[in-house]
Amino acid sequence: MRKMRVYEVAKEKKMSSKDMLVVLSRIGINVKSHMSVLEKDELQKIEEFFAPKDHATKETAAGKKEVRVKNMEQVDSRSSEGGSGEQSREGAPSRRSRGGSQGKGSKKSPPKVNGGKHAEEGSRKKGNVAESKDAERQQHRKKGKRDHKANGFTGGGKGGRGKKGGKAPVAPPPVSHIKKITVGDSISVQELAKRMGKTANEVIKKLFELGIPATLNQEIDADTVVIVASEFGIETEVKIEKPITVIEDLLDPEDTLEPRPPVVTVMGHVDHGKTSLLDAIRETNVTASEAGGITQHIGAYQVNIKGKKITFLDTPGHEAFTAMRARGAEATDIAILVVAADDGVMPQTVEAINHSKAAQVPIIVAINKIDKPTANIERIKQQLTEHNLVPEEWGGDTVFVPVSAKKKEGIDQLLEMVLLVAEINELKANPNRPARGIVVEAELDKGRGPVATVLVQKGTLKIGDNLVIGSVYGKVRAMFDDKGRKIKEAPPSTPVEVLGLASVPEPGDIFDVVEDEKLAKTIAAQREIDKKQQEFKEASQIRLEDIFKQMNADGLKELNLVLKSDVHGSAEALRQSLERLNTDEVKVNIIHNGVGAISEADVMLAAASQAIIIGFNVRPDSNARRAAETENVEIRLYRIIYEVIEDIKAAMAGLLEPDLKEVVLGQAEVRALFKVPKVGVIAGSYVLEGKITNKAQVRVIRDGVVVHEGQLHSLKRFKDDAKEVVQGFECGIGIESFNDLKEGDIIEAFEFEEVKREL
């Protein structure tokens, strides 16, 4: 069977192309137009649909043809015998055919002998054959119309009446041959009707009967589909397909697991010696390279202790990096809580404890700075018991190790405790599977592009692997360990820097290795779409409280900022710190928060939005500097987060409306009253204290009660105008729009002074 186009099949079935498209839609063949090509299996499906009807038509046509052939044989036999007898009813067409050849009103003449006889016989045969073909076509057309109506199509006849003028019988609706359908968690009404082999009107009607008003494109859930399908006698199988964006973390069989190094997070308060402790372990000097001696972003290091590896994560101690510490706790097996023996438990120490407990991570307490004279180890233990960290010697289960990072005391004991806790917890992973892990840090390097520091948790990450990290995809082009050396493989619990990503991922995102780059790109693109849809959905959810806030925010002032940082973690922490400065009157509006050097595009964005550019550990390039000078955009560069917060706080305070403070200038007693035409009453007064100025506001106090408050109209010393009159002198005072003065009243002069507000 050759391929055919839709219009060819319609022509063969004696239907219009439009009707054929409807038929194809009903039997589940999706085509675009009448020019679409139908494959062999689709043509077979069409033939099966039309088979019963075509077969009946063929049988009817064959029966009619057989009757006509018999009639022709009878006529021929009678004609050969003389042809004068009466014709049977079946021979009526032959009589009409002969009569038509002789002309109207002519008498029936006997058949001619010889040539005339053969000519008449030939003419009769030709007429019968032609008539037989016409009748066959007519019967086929009638049958086609009946089939057409039976399939749900209406004829084009006037009023739908037959030959005798009566109403044509309504064909019964077709019985669906579909017994079972499979649907997901939701489906549109139109798609459901197509799958059940029903019209959309039938499904909508059934939904309406069930009390569910629905439209053609409305989505209905799986439970409703089951009920509707059962009404039509169709079984429904609900099969919710896993979205492509979800990559399941399959459990590894027990026999595939192998011991892996523990991942240790060093946590604690600012300046309690976390990085110094790591320095002592790694025998390096990281603190010297950190601005202000504070770790500004997460570092991941791996050390080798007595042939066994331990992976360390160093987290910042400043309160602004709470979220980063939380991510560190989620990625770790053991938490080392560093507490300074001379300082004690601080707010960030408590935060670190809460993060570790929330992640259900065992805690080892390292009491640092024991070499200082003011160190008090017992006081630290007592303070930590208030947070349910009880030392083993006190009957608890928390390991306490006194150490001195400066003198490298107690370091070996601390590492032995780490290996012991790791051995008790039996840390294992399957190295022979696609890698999976977490992004510890990410940044945009000017020379290398997007760089992500990842911690492999399962499997082995290799060069050439295709990665999906949130809505970011990429291929591992190169990997570097914590010492900057190129490596080809990264087994479980190994921190590595990865190059080859399309963009900078979010710290804390999970990364997965997939089969090919095309799949990685598809998953990342779909996740990006889902993310935007979710953001749009959240933005479109307007609540009444939001409307009231917007109505009351007319006087709200905004400080627009463009933030650029060296790494993603610092950018996130800086944004959170600045947003916490928001008040009811002044708001920090972060226009853009990015990673990398300050570019010309950042300057243009700041110019368009009247924003200030904040650079944290980054510098502007030459083009950005020139653009900033041209556009008059202010660029502020920082290396320590404290300075950023203080400066922004001062800038926000400058946007606050100043407070107005009332300052009393002086008081004068009314001793005489003078009526001046066209001016009013002038009070002859004596200044009791302070001074009275000609621009001051005044209030009239009578028997300790304020009877009027207004503006000073005139101030005279004798006949001359005076700017001010001090204590001990007399003066004439006129008050604007007030003449009801009496002797003995006290006139108090005051003014309002603006006081600068602070956050």
Structural class of the helix and strand makeup? Answer: alpha+beta
Q: How many β strands by DSSP? A: 35
Strand content: 25-35%
Radius of gyration: 48 Å
Low-confidence stretches: 53-67, 69-133, 145-168, 284-289, 292-297, 317-321, 540-545
Physical arrangement of strands within the biggest beta sheet: 9-10-8-11-12-13
Shape: flat
Count of runs of 4 or more consecutive helical residues: 19
Helix content: 25-40%
Characterize the biggest β-sheet: 6 strands, mixed
Q: In whole angstroms, how far apart are the ends?
A: 84 Å
SSE blueprint and pairings:
Layout: E1 4-5, H1 6-12, H2 17-26, E2 37-38, H3 40-81, H4 92-102, H5 115-150, E3 180-183, E4 186-188, H6 189-196, H7 200-209, E5 219-221, H8 222-231, E6 235-238, E7 258-259, E8 263-268, H9 274-282, E9 299-305, E10 308-314, H10 322-330, E11 334-340, H11 347-358, E12 363-368, H12 377-385, E13 399-402, H13 411-425, E14 428-429, E15 436-445, E16 449-458, E17 461-462, E18 466-469, E19 472-480, E20 486-487, E21 489-490, E22 495-501, E23 510-514, H14 517-540, H15 544-552, E24 557-565, H16 568-579, E25 586-595, H17 600-609, E26 612-616, H18 622-631, E27 635-638, H19 641-655, E28 659-676, E29 680-693, E30 697-702, E31 705-717, E32 720-721, E33 724-726, E34 730-735, E35 746-755
Parallel strand pairs: 3-6, 8-10, 8-11, 11-12, 12-13, 24-25, 24-26, 26-27
Antiparallel strand pairs: 1-2, 4-5, 7-14, 9-10, 15-16, 15-23, 16-22, 17-21, 18-19, 18-23, 19-20, 19-22, 28-29, 28-35, 29-33, 29-34, 30-31, 30-35, 31-32, 31-34
